[in-house]
């Protein structure tokens, strides 16, 4: 079937250098054929534009391509834009307007927002406000079956666009850029987002627009910041691309995920927004329900609660399997270092970690021999949950939050590592960001899974995996398919992004003498006693 492929050019701050940009466009078109339009972000006019601009305004010269520009970013250039709602400035040069959507005859949707983010009220004429962004979002999101726009044009960068991304060079995206533009990009899900003003070129790795395991797959976004026209550093200011309108694309092709796709940099904004999940079609199953399900090889699906139901009989508590050799963690084993044990329940116990990241780094361990959380019987799992709740209360009383992780890989007995982190050191979002960023650096796909989901919904017994849980219930999961760094969890927590103790990443470097370990265990037991349900049950 015929699909309208549009060939577009996008450019950064022209700053009134019209001869330079249009000369470059003529050269490109002579070499590569015609382009449909030129989209200009950033400052189209400069403070000294008048003489050059007069030739185009009067018709003495004509732009070689239909050119669409954003409005003023400073008071000095406001006079070049006579109509705030958009107008033709000269033949082939159109001011798009303050904000809105431009739809070409091909069906391509281009959303645009002129100006910079207002820092005061009422906002100056060259600035946009939260109201502008809200109205632009509403006009688009109200459309039935809205999936996103093809292109978004803004002058400022979006705040935090560098999160989970390739290096942004000297630009600190935690301080630079607009929060409102980030909010707009998070909601409009453009396939391409162009910005300028920072006098540099930056092409971000594409990012995904859906929560893996929680939403049906969607297209990715490519953010591209362009430098100023004719800059002496030879930084790229003109970007050529071909695009088929989203409305003409095969849905499966549209949502293809490139290999270098990253997590969404605006995850915080998306989580704060009201949840509006795309409805699932009759053929689709919720992604979280049977994700990573290997049971298709066994000829039947695993029910969503993670238990096999051949009949309606209640499941009998199964005896834990016996270890194949000596186990360091089975409580009945002579190998257990019992001086580290700080609490013993009916099915589980707590022990201080040997060579812990901190003196109150503890392990939750089943008394019997189970390899992973997925293997646990319901009564053991119930007691694990009670220990997690007690530890949350205990650590919060000390101004800390815990991070829990499990590595079901090259280990024969389940160890849930529980490490406290001071509340004033970092937020739960900082912790997740540190894990996801460091995972990406090592080509590890660490995915967020629904807070109230059961781990058995995404992993089957015997499947190697790495799993992180915060005391808020938020969870990250990686299915291990090949090699996996054994100290990954510790390394992330010890890194500069979190505890800033990289020298403690390897437990062997932190192991204390037995008398010191015993003293730490006694201190922990004493402090934990008011929260220890095993002493009351």
Describe the structure concisely.
With 537 residues, the protein is α/β, with parallel strands linked by helices. The protein folds into two domains: 7-270, Metallo-dependent phosphatases (Purple Acid Phosphatase, chain A, domain 2), CATH 3.60.21; 338-531, HIT family, subunit A, CATH 3.30.428.10.
Defining traits:
23 strands, HIT-like_sf, alpha/beta, 2 domains, eight-stranded antiparallel sheet, Purple Acid Phosphatase, chain A, domain 2, 11 helices, RNA lariat debranching enzyme activator activity, Cwf19-like_C_dom-2, 537 residues, HIT family, subunit A
Structural account:
- There is one protein chain.
- This protein has 537 residues and is an alpha/beta fold.
- The strands form four sheets. Strands 16-17-18-20-19-22-23-21 form an eight-stranded antiparallel β-sheet, with helices on both faces. Strands 6, 7, 10, 11, 12, 13 and 14 form a seven-stranded mixed β-sheet that branches. Strands 4-5-3-2-1-15 form a six-stranded mixed β-sheet, with no helix packed on it.
- Helix 3 (130-141) runs parallel beside helix 4 (179-188) and helix 9 (428-441) packs across helix 10.
- It has eleven helices and 23 strands.
- The model is unreliable at 274-317 (pLDDT under 50).
- It has two domains: 7-270, 4-Layer Sandwich (Purple Acid Phosphatase, chain A, domain 2), CATH 3.60.21.10; 338-531, HIT family, subunit A (2-Layer Sandwich), CATH 3.30.428.
- Residues 316-424 form the Cwf19-like C-terminal domain.
- Residues 254-283, 297-323 are annotated as: Disordered.
